[in-house]
């Protein structure tokens, strides 16, 4: 409650009940920009910390992502405000619980399905952290991180795909007698 009160000191219209919908809109727009690989528009919706992690994961891949519905309304579960370097430089972080239904299909650079399905909807339960530089009057709420529980097993990385390049060597039978005479004449 103290963190929410401090956020309201800098942002008078902040309401915990309404923030869930704002956070969901940011979440959807960020994931749409990742699927489109729009690097410039993506920076409006995610922080500098999240940007390299998210863009590294989409390199050489095609992503089809769609938000279908919210199974439960997004809920604010934790809020924190901390100062960085000086007392006036404040950052707020809010953790939001999402229980949604989504479609996700990830294809490698050759068009083979690596993960998910474009037709099978999955129920997704996520805890997402949003951050705002509240000392900056032009600061915006942006996606900062996703919390992965320790008990969840690590995901297996998808196998990397490579293009095999065969050496092009002419067999000796393909060399004609005229070619041998030309080589001998130039030597």
Ranges with pLDDT <50 over ≥5 residues?
A: none
Q: Strand sequence of the main sheet, in spatial order?
A: 1-2-3-4
Distance separating the two termini: 90 Å
Query: What oligomeric state best describes the polypeptide chains here?
Result: single chain
Helix proportion range: 25-40%
Mean pLDDT: 83
Share of β-strand residues? 35-45%
Helical run tally: 5
* Sheet/helix structural class: alpha+beta
Q: How many individual β-strands?
A: 4
| Integer-rounded radius of gyration | 26 Å
Largest sheet: 4 strands, antiparallel
How would you describe this protein?
By secondary structure, the protein is of the alpha+beta class. The chain is built from 5 helices and 4 strands, in the order H-H-H-H-E-E-E-E-H. The protein has helices at 2-10, 16-36, 39-42, 50-57, 177-186, and strands at 62-83, 90-107, 113-133, 142-147. Strands 1-2-3-4 form a 4-stranded antiparallel beta sheet. The model has no long low-confidence stretch (mean pLDDT 83).
Task: Provide the descriptors you would attach to this structure in a database record.
187 residues, alpha+beta, 4-stranded antiparallel sheet, 28% helix, 5 helices
